Amino acid sequence: MTETHAATRKENEGTAVEAGSKATERFTASGKLAKLDVPKERVSLLAGAAIKAINDIAVEHQVTYEEYNALKAWLIKVGTDGEWPLFLDVWLEHTIEDVNSQERPGAVGTIEGPYYVPDSPVLPTPATLQMREDEPGTPLLFKGRFTDTDGNPLQGAQVEIWHADANGFYSQYAPELPEWLFRGTVKADENGYFEINTKRPAPYQIPTDGACGQLIGAAGWHAWRPAHIHIKVSAPGHQLVTQQLYFPGDPHNADDIASAVKPELMLDPKPRTDGGAGEEVVYDYVLAKEGQTK
Ligand code: MBD
Ligand code: FE
């Protein structure tokens, strides 16, 4: 593709391979790969259990060679489309998150998903996320307060926020969007309060033209996640929480393809009371200290 051609593309003209490859590159570049150190005993236990589970399925369901070869072709395509992050985050991460958050008091978490980008622009509260001129969508004022589990205000707290635009696309994963559109790191004030001006994201459909979309089509499933705002909240000396917040009434709250909706994560937006356009919503965060358990 030439530069001029690329420059005229719209956000909805991206491909699964582009989005997937970026997610794969980002994960590889994040340094997570280099640091991973799983003891031999755990590798043997977990890989052994996974292999046994799949073999058991082959027996239980009398898997044919046709089906085995379809599986092989599909797994190869997941890799060439760069969709391993998407596949794992959609169909497995929710269980990993549940297992690992059971003992943490305070704010409820959910999956990170494949589209987090670290080191987004730092903004003091009250903040306005980066938007285009004439950015479409309903204005949303999102505000809240940080406390510890004893109700004391937290010092040095921050909200990392990222979400899709009103067409359901993420900056850095769809073409032609400003780099930090709807991404920011908002610093709360000394009493733990924060305010973020943004716009309501649209529901998100995972790419339909890649391996994950092919599976969804072949199985007759749907590809939708309900509209959501991704968040990472943290404060010095406290446990980081990764979560997403959702909007009441979304048709896919009850059948999120990524199984990442929890009742505690449902927002309650109201018309703005200060005369501004759009909606406002309050969501407060209780963070647990390092090492604190339920
Ligand atoms: C998303 O935006 C997302 O949040 C998840 C979990 C998977 C795919 C796209
Ligand atoms: Fe998302």
Automatic annotation (TrEMBL):
Spans annotated as Disordered: 1-23
Q: Which residues cross the membrane?
A: none
A Pfam family this protein belongs to?
Dioxygenase_C
Q: Name one GO biological process term.
A: catechol-containing compound metabolic process
Q: By its UniProt entry, which InterPro entries does this protein fall under? A: 1_2-CTD_multi_dom, Catechol_dOase_N, Cchol_dOase_actb, Intradiol_dOase_C, Intradiol_dOase_core, Intradiol_RC_Dioxygenase
* Origin: domain of life: Bacteria
Domain (Intradiol ring-cleavage dioxygenases) ranges: 111-287
Please list the residue ranges that the record marks as compositionally biased, kind Basic and acidic residues: 1-13
**Name used for this protein in its record:** Catechol 1,2-dioxygenase
Query: What phylogenetic lineage does the species belong to?
Result: Bacteria, Bacillati, Actinomycetota, Actinomycetes, Micrococcales
